[in-house]
Amino acid sequence: METTDNSTSTGFVKFYNVKAKFGFIICSVTKKEYYVRSSGLIDQVKDGDSVSFQIEPHPKGPKAVQVQVIRE
Q1: What CATH number is given for 9-69 in this structure?
Q2: pTM (2 decimals)?
């Protein structure tokens, strides 16, 4: 299980399905893909959105939480 230091990462929404309430975020630094559920969202997201997020350990692999859209 991957651990985290609660620092904030940035990336973009690769895919998010509103009806199924899950998706994936790609970290802009590591290029790793993180699973995200609707419960991990602060803002509503759509495919391609730039986001900030934290990484939380999970038995099935790390997931993105505290996901917020970066508004420019």
Answers
A1: 2.40.50.140
A2: 0.88
